[in-house]
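step 3/5: co-fold with iron/sulfur cluster
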Amino acid sequence: MNVVLGLDGLDALVGVLREEGHVVIGPVLRDDAITLAELSSAADLPSGWGVETGPGHYRVREREDAAVFGHSAGPQSWKRFLHPPRRTLVSSDSTGFHAARDDTPDYAFLGVRPCDLAAIAKLRQIVASKLPFVVAAQCTEPGEVCFCTSMGCGPGAGDGYDIALTERLDADGHRFLATPGTEAGAAVLDRLPGRVATKQDVALAEQDVATAARRMGRALPEVDLRDLLAANRDSAHWEAVAQRCLTCGNCTMVCPTCFCVSVEDTTDLDGNAERAERWASCFEIDFSHLHGGAVRTSGAARYRQWMTHKLGTWHDQFGTSGCVGCGRCIAWCPAGIDITEEAAALSQTTEHGGERR
Ligand code: SF4
Ligand code: SF4
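step 4/5: write tokens
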């Protein structure tokens, strides 16, 4: 049953999830960005804060209303909780070897945008992780770099949530339509103060999400991207991108689905040793090190690898695209490189035939 929650209901939601033993993670305003951190109450949410984004651009801004989910994807994603940046695999000391224990908390994620809901599903195909309790926040206000509609990953929430919220502020007040997605979600909603939703509440939420879809400013070209990238392995366009790309790897670090890791061993003078995995990037020169050296030495080869895997060969590996259209790689690229523009440029040079070699 859909219910309508007020701000007291949202606060009660955080409280109930904490009472049930979850570590509740949600968006907070910190370090001039909307980041993700543990919530002790709904007061920790970034009420009244939005963001402006663009290629190589991200700024928080004060909103004219008190929306708590009125911001698009920030620099962090839920990946850091399901697939931590550094994780000990095994350690040893004078007493022997010790396998790392899985001490992942029982998370509840609150405010998961639909693009990130899709990213969590993709990531869980690859990395083993406990299933968190998920409260999605349907998107009614896309950011300037978002393109989830063209990836089929938003702005409405797809599968995988326990509760989906749709926020609305108007003359009738500040409220959240809460839709259960699982029995566990319905049981939590039963414990919250709220009222049964009317057909009008549901219609308004659907209308807000449909309006967000129409306001999506970017899209990937409507071509078979897997075929496009396979056909453009030798395109001159990769060199053109490499003129701008710094091979810094920011795009891979902020991407909610990039999952590559490197393994490193450390020792100290007391005889302790540790083997750990840490996030790695296909933009690192050593990432493609085989016998004799790296096989992708140029920036052009490394950008091609990233984009070809993300939009093309991911389909062969996992039966889906690796991109959910969150736009983070565009906003956090210091050179402002835009994956939608690069795909469009490849598509045009292929159509017109002249720039391929
Ligand atoms: S595309 Fe941008 S973010 Fe990615 S490696 Fe190149 S410069 Fe860095
Ligand atoms: S490739 Fe870019 S837009 Fe796509 S999921 Fe990764 S960060 Fe988001």
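step 5/5: annotate
The chain is about 30% helix and 25% strand.
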